[in-house]
Amino acid sequence: MAYAQRLFPFLPKDYIRRRRAVRQITNILMIATLSAISAYFITRTSGGPGFPARKLSANPIAAASPTVQPPASAPSAGDVPPSDYANGYDLQPGPYTVSEVADLVLDDANRGKELHVRVFYPDDAGKYPIIVFSHGAGGSQNCCDGLTRHWAGYGYVTIQPTHDDSAVQRRNQGEENIRFMQAVREALKKPARWESRPLDITYVLDALPVIQNRVPGLIGKIDPNAIGVGGHSMGSYTTEAIAGALVDLPGHPARNFADPRVKAVLCLSPQGPSQFGLSDHSFDRISLPYMGMTGSLDSLGPVASPAWHKTPFERSQPGDKYHLFIEGANHMSFITPRTALPGGAEKGQAIFGYTNSASLAFWDAYLKGDARAKSYLQSSALEKSSHGAVKISRR
Fold first, then answer.
1. In 10 A of CB 50, how many CB atoms?
2. What residues form DSSP beta bridges with 262?
3. 224 touches 217 (CB < 8 A)
4. Phi-psi region for residue 174, left (φ > 0), alpha (ψ -120 to 50) or beta?
5. Predicted TM-score (pTM) of this structure
6. What is the tens place of the pLDDT at every residue in 271-303?
């Protein structure tokens, strides 16, 4: 208010207070509306059986027609011919059948906690890269399977932990009155949650031998030298911390949670400064290959705008950095095609397809060393196949 009075000294104080109150109420209503939508998709159960694993067909990614299979050999220098990716990068079901462990409970003795994880993995023999994916505030391991199962169908082991802020997990543990919105508010305000999330990811990486031994179908399949971490919303904060973003915790400023085992990171609706202990300079040391995605409707008010979501990309070290801006995408568009959008279900399916195309190409390029995938990321193929809905920035 003092700032507004300096700029506009002729305005009465009551007027400024009213404007500030209206702005705060508007922001709260926007967050509440989006979170109510999020609650359905994030907290719903998967419906799958528990341990042991069950077999799944690779998840079909919605597309109007089958994707043209890209050539097996790496393309020559320059743009990938758009005709090779007329419907996106590998959107058809992958070549591997996939098994699921819906709820594997790990015992973190050092922290005295149980960590629940969901796992998808290919049935075929061989070693596969690992992707650990972190859910948003208040969510659970059951989110985002349209992404993680699709990646598994293309030769990845995907692991989705449930963090302490999960409303579903807290209800399962006896907190009958906990609600999704309450869990979200607490996650924003409790530094203990900011600390526990990246520690969960580090523990999952420590526990890879345990996970492999407890799931018979995984024995011999984990490649510890090819590890990626991704996340959505607060899961993007978690990912940024693991990538080296510095976090200001009470009594411990500039805390570094970086894990050197991680080779690449993916942030869907990335977290900018002024939340979860992040500052303008928190991202300066991030040097890993990075991809972030936001959209024109990915906004929670004047702070968490699409420009704010781009901050990690702009402030991190240059080299192998990608940022996607998708016209019409909202906060939930990146993890499910079933989200309310102007233009209806068809638009949601298309945006989810763009997310899958870019993310799988990113993992293939930086966890598998696939030259075809990297050429795709460096080309204009996705922008052309989306008819301009996707804009890619690179550093």
1. 12
2. 227
3. no
4. left
5. 0.79
6. 999 989 999 999 999 999 999 999 999 886 667
